[in-house]
Amino acid sequence: MTPQPLGSGKIYTETVVWSAPEAHLKEAPYQMAIVVLSAGGRLTARILGDRVQIGDAVTFAEYRDGVPFFRKAA
Amino acid sequence: MRAVAIVGLGKTPFGAFQDRDLRSLGVEAGRKCLEDAGAAPSQVEAFYLGNFAGPSFAGQNHLAPYVAGAMGIEGVPATRCEAACASGGSAFFHAYSSVAAGLYDVVLVTGVEKMTSQSTPRVSEILAGAGDMAGEIKAGGTFAALFAMIARRHMHQYGTTREQMAAVAVKNHANAFKNPYAHMRKLITLEQALAGKPIAEPLTIYDCSLISDGAASLLLAPLDRASEFAGQPVLVAGIAQTSGPVALDRREDITTFTAVRTAAQKACRMAGVGAPEIQFAEVHDCFTIAEIMALEDLGFVGPGEGGPYVQQGATALGGERPVNASGGLKAKGHPVGATGAAQICDVAEQIRGAAGDRQVRNHDLGLAQNLGGSGATAVVTILRAVR
């Protein structure tokens, strides 16, 4: 089953992780966030590109290994 | 249900002990507890072990009979309780329940964790197993990251500040400085706490509890048999264990732990007290923001009032309601499976008036709050002096 695009959403909360777990050591620092989807529901995602803050609008970018990535809406 | 008393206490120091394994820590706490109670291992009718991740940290499984046997307790039910960082509290809750229900009279609880044999990234990975592996953890979350997201939202909703979170760390370090059993007996300043290296923004290293080794034990018996034991009895006046969603993104509001609110209300109702009457508490400050939330969820202050309450000194050792007089998870240390049991030991010690330099002034009614994961398990225990 191919994961579906998630559309747009808003940042509910976020953090930039500096001290990563073993599996993500090489990626740190990285930003993760809880995104409230415009279509309903919320999920935990990673942020690509510019850093985001609570309330920022974001759009779905891609899945990497099943993890949804969003970026700040233009 | 029968009234149940704590009739024995035993703790190991918390710290990083290269030469100690899980079993030797558990045995030390258990033996000290039985000694305090003047009880023999043969009197113990059931054993509950609180342990989060012994199999991952040390490779050893089947831990309850493994530890019980080494204490000389054999033939009786020996059961491990796993509820992430609330494993110790959960073990105590189940031990309490079995005595209150009349199933057994004399029951031993030991909480233990041996964590320092692993690297910090590996420890983070093991601890992350208490989160939602298919969602928040897969995305790169650690427990620091989850609590950082909680802190951000709390700051956004209520204006909680980094200074208020740092004030929790400064206070708890000051208390641990007076605790000979604490992992880190080092005073810190507000400036130091604010300038710590970032772990997960806005949390710095000074907002995070310690990775520790340690164990704590309690012996329980019906109140009407308490006089048979040497240890000064302390009444379990109220207790509740509750649960909630594991994943943060399954909750509408992450600035409060519903499981803690519910457990606190149930425990207070059982004890016949209101939250304002609680004189002192040991709360689950796995991260500084968690202590601020505990003050709110336990009903000591309203939503969003936890930060200012700490900042004004109300929770300091000499304040109106001392919180984490032991130094808390922040500075006493946080061997996860031991923590819940150690908190109850610390509250009982205060009620006995035996807490030394960190003794609180009013010590008839105290509370311990133990949290599992990012709020999926909560255990709240209210202890009262026996008059």
Task: Write structural notes for this entry.
The complex is a heterodimer of chains A (74) and B (387). Chain A contains no helices and 5 strands. Chain A has strands at residues 8-17, 30-37, 42-48, 57-64, 67-72. By secondary structure, chain A is mostly beta strands. The model of chain A has no long low-confidence stretch (mean pLDDT 94). Chain B has helices at 22-37, 54-58, 63-70, 87-100, 120-128, 143-158, 162-176, 190-194, 258-271, 288-297, 306-311, 328-332, 336-352, and strands at residues 4-11, 46-50, 78-81, 107-114, 198-200, 203-204, 213-222, 234-243, 280-282, 365-372, 377-385. Chain B is built from 13 helices and 11 strands. Chain B folds into 2 domains: 4-119 and 211-234, Thiolase/Chalcone synthase (Peroxisomal Thiolase, Chain A, domain 1), CATH 3.40.47.10; 130-209 and 237-385, Thiolase/Chalcone synthase (Peroxisomal Thiolase, Chain A, domain 1, 3-Layer(aba) Sandwich). In chain B, helix 1 (22-37) crosses helix 3 (63-70), helix 4 (87-100) packs across helix 13 (336-352) and helix 7 packs across helix 10 (288-297). The A-B interface holds A 12-25, 27, 29-30, 32-34, 42-46, 54, 65-68 and B 120-122, 124-125, 128, 135-142, 144-145, 148-150, 152-153, 156, 197-203, 247-249, 254.
Can you tell me the CATH superfamily of the largest domain in chain B?
A: Thiolase/Chalcone synthase
**Estimated helix fraction of chain A:** under 10%
Q: What value does the Rg of chain B take, in angstroms?
A: 19 Å
What is the mean pLDDT of chain A? 94
Oligomer: heterodimer
Distance between the termini of chain B: 20 Å
Count every helix of chain A, treating DSSP H or I runs of 4 or more residues as helices: 0
CATH topology of the largest domain in chain B, by name, is Peroxisomal Thiolase, Chain A, domain 1
Q: Work out the count of structural domains of chain B.
A: 2
Spatial separation of the terminal alpha carbons of chain A: 30 Å
Annotated CATH architecture of chain A: Beta Barrel
